[in-house]
Amino acid sequence: MSPEEFRNQGKQMIDWIADYYENIEQYPVLSQVKPGEIKNQLPDSAPLESESMTQIMEDVNSIIMPGITHWQSPNFYAFFPSNSSGPSILGDLLSSGLGVQGMIWATSPACTELETRVLDWLSEMLQLPEKFKSSSDGGAVIQDTASSAALSAILAAREKKTNYETNDSGSLGNLVAYVSMHTHSSVEKAIKIAGIGKNNLRLIGVDENLAMRPDLLETAIKNDLQNGLIPFFVCATVGTTSTNAMDPLPEIGQICQQYELWMHIDAAMSGTAAICPEYRYLLNGVEYADSFSFNPHKWMFTNFDCNCFFVADRSVLIKTLSILPEYLKNQATESGAVFDYRDWHIQLGRRFRSLKLWFVIRHYGVNGLRYHIRQHINLAQQFAEWVRSSDEFDLVTPAPLNLVCFAHKSGNDFNRKLLETINNKGKMYFTHTVINNQYVLRMCIGQTNTKEEHVDLAWKIIQETAKELSYQKL
Amino acid sequence: MSPEEFRNQGKQMIDWIADYYENIEQYPVLSQVKPGEIKNQLPDSAPLESESMTQIMEDVNSIIMPGITHWQSPNFYAFFPSNSSGPSILGDLLSSGLGVQGMIWATSPACTELETRVLDWLSEMLQLPEKFKSSSDGGAVIQDTASSAALSAILAAREKKTNYETNDSGSLGNLVAYVSMHTHSSVEKAIKIAGIGKNNLRLIGVDENLAMRPDLLETAIKNDLQNGLIPFFVCATVGTTSTNAMDPLPEIGQICQQYELWMHIDAAMSGTAAICPEYRYLLNGVEYADSFSFNPHKWMFTNFDCNCFFVADRSVLIKTLSILPEYLKNQATESGAVFDYRDWHIQLGRRFRSLKLWFVIRHYGVNGLRYHIRQHINLAQQFAEWVRSSDEFDLVTPAPLNLVCFAHKSGNDFNRKLLETINNKGKMYFTHTVINNQYVLRMCIGQTNTKEEHVDLAWKIIQETAKELSYQKL
Asked: What is the predicted pLDDT for the residue at A276?
């Protein structure tokens, strides 16, 4: 494709995307297709000869679009947000256009150095301790997801605890890690990947707010020590996926310090709130952490994938994941003059992801980001208030930020039916969780374009549908 | 950013990228900046207030661009290609615009089903055995990189061999894996991540063409068995990174079959050549493989990241990486009605990457892709012929495809100086390897826009610079 044709086709694609955002509310939020429906419309074999962009875009419109669940719709309240924005899409487009492979500093110095600088900005925006800055012994790197960040933390913790012996001789099945019963399942996956074994992952009990109980954590650690096992890692969560529960970081941190465990903090969605001074308290205790991660691709207007992973002692991470003999690389790396980011995560290759993050932060400004985060939280708090004042619905857990967990008083079957009925209507999409055998509805408010009118409408739909279903039941 | 502003800014960005490709040869291919030079031009703190796209793009031009090594330049011959194309950039742009998170089928059915279909197309284009097709017991998934694909293969092999016991109880340091001395270092990294330990990775010796020697592989396996260890995994390479050596797949495959080892094939760059019938022989023996991967983001005009990972028995992979209890998910997944791709790789979240691959295959058509691959190979073969006929240079290894390894007759120091001098001139960029203590120059020809005139120029620059350096030496 010549630059001229790219110019022409590219502008049409930009128009297509702008049109999409203008009309996004006209699509059913949750795709209504059945398994196989999309695949069966696509030819069995690749075309031998070239096809035009017009043909391709016709198929996008007729075949692909019905199979899209519209994550960017302002009426999307499911799972967690994965919000995006114009500047992010443009930063990502620039990254694709440059086509840079930033595996080491030398393969494009700007790719490494912009990333380092922007992550230091974020460190300051979140008021993280100095140790996480690149100018100290720590630093940060963009990873794809919080899952990969957790895996990297587990590996660094494993190597630090075994004095890098596991990298040489393999795991021995005697290391033990700790999470709460509500920690995201990606940690269990990472524990299996790292050769620790899920039988060596303790699921610590939670308090009435579904936050990890430090007393039970300490009991479990003591018990494992008595049995000759080696506790090495704790993951504390700021805002669990299920209910946005907040593990008590200072208490967990003190235990990690006392027993010499690596403390990782997963603040995937909720970490973003801490850029607002009034929500920074959520990160109190982060000073104990060895690593910390959050996802601008969830709630900071940066399109997937973009996880920011901060580490207090980069030398441990690098020594764990570097594949070059130390004598070749470490002097430059440890001096801080040059980071080779391929030694900071699982993959070797990497794209220029800091561009989109840089575009987003500059386009919004820190105050602009704070404004939108506060709007989302205010909308969620308003929704929680409606639930509290309602005769038909109960608030099931505290709603500290932008996630509201609630249920109709008519029981699990009713709530299941209510969710299904509403999602099939296509006007909004939300999901559920299960807490102590109770089927609970989740409204997570964080899409870029969600405004008061959308949340008003959602509450109206929920109430009306509940009334209809109650009536049918009578 | 409103849709209208996005429309306006987006078109300017498209123009910027089109201009970039029109003028790309005017930049020095290898960035000439010093460590810290980019970072020090960027402010210490994020801006509090919004900045305009004009300001941001001014900084892209003045600060970022000098720190770019131009991977998309037709004069880029370093490492391996990471080629891109107009349709790929547009497919990726559409993916960013839709902002879909395809972790499971239900979160956007089109994201899963297009991927399955396009990977089946590729399976056919590469004439892979039926077992790798989604309609059989196997299937394929897009991963970010060949490193992650190798890690996934190692994990599946580990679990299959231990009857899923390692996932439960952790590794035991008695599993052994095999690669050649020239296998990519990502496999060593994956072996460490998986808790196998690098002492349990055997580096098998190579023949005169730097391909793995099956007799030494079998000896090593027998030796480990005698010592009570458990051989479980072999990675064979189609086109090593260093010299494009081709491991003998049928012989290695037979040994894997006999001793019940998982056979993974890494064809990261060179796999693409097999879409041309005359190069399909490179994959002879793939019928023995349990898994196979190659990177359209290297040599198939699809921008990073896009690795295609094929597996012969998807149930092993899914059972290894699934984090949901089996009774919840496996009936739908194993029936083939629904794939939840988050259970096919390390990460949970995933973007809509099949769009760019679909755009590329349809824009070029299979014949178009073949045409460009053949052009690259012809150019490299022409270059190899020039080296062979030269009095000053030697061809160091066979050049089966698009990589030529050669050296000036004047020894290591001279070649090192030659490479450095040429790369600093900025007209082209190539890199080196070391083979049996010999410093060897590498010309890897695979950039989308590399034509005869560029390779002519490269050979001219190399010859002239060598003459200048020889003259200075006298």
From this structure: 98
A368 interface with B at CB cutoff 8 Å: yes
Instruction: Give the pLDDT score at B471.
Output: 86
Q: Which domains does chain B have, with CATH numbers?
A: 3-68 (1.20.1340.10), 100-351 (3.40.640.10), 367-473 (3.90.1150.10)
Selecting from A67, A192, A198 the residue whose C-beta is nearest the C-beta of B108 gives A67
Is the CB of residue A183 less than 8 Å from the CB of residue A235? yes
Phi, psi angle pair for A180, to nearest 5°: -90, 170
Q: What per-residue string of b and e applies to A20-48 under the rule 16 or more CB within 10 Å gives b?
A: bbeebeebbbbbebebebbbebbeeebbe
Beta-carbon separation of B172 and A170 below 8 A: yes
* B211 CB-near residues (< 8 Å, 6+ apart): B180, B245, B246, B247, B248
Peptide bond preceding B266: is omega within 30 degrees of 0, i.e. cis?
no
Question: How many residues does the structure list for chain B?
Answer: 474
Q: Residue A11 CB: number of other CB atoms within 10 A?
A: 17
Q: pLDDT of B164-182, one tens digit each?
A: 999 999 988 899 999 999 9
| Selection from A455, A457, A462 nearest residue A375 by Cα | A455
Which of the four pLDDT bands, split at 50, 70 and 90, describes residue B338?
A: confident
Cross-chain Cβ contact A193/B101 below 8 Å: no
User: A25, A184, A346, A449: best mutation site toward chain B, by most B Cβ within 10 Å?
Assistant: A346
Instruction: Say which residue the tokens 């068995």 belong to.
Output: B225
Q: Are B434 and B182 in contact (CB under 8 A)?
A: no
What are B397's two structure tokens? 């290894």
**Are B348 and A189 in contact (CB < 8 Å)?**
yes
B143 - beta bridge partners? B307
| Dmax (CA) of chain A | 77
ipTM beyond 0.85?
yes
Condensed to tens digits (0 to 9), the pLDDT of residues A139-176 reads 999 999 999 999 999 999 999 999 999 999 998 889 99
- Cβ contacts of B111 on chain A, cutoff 8 Å: 67-68
> For residue B213, is it left (φ>0), alpha (ψ between -120 and 50) or beta?
beta
The token duo for B278 is 């005359």
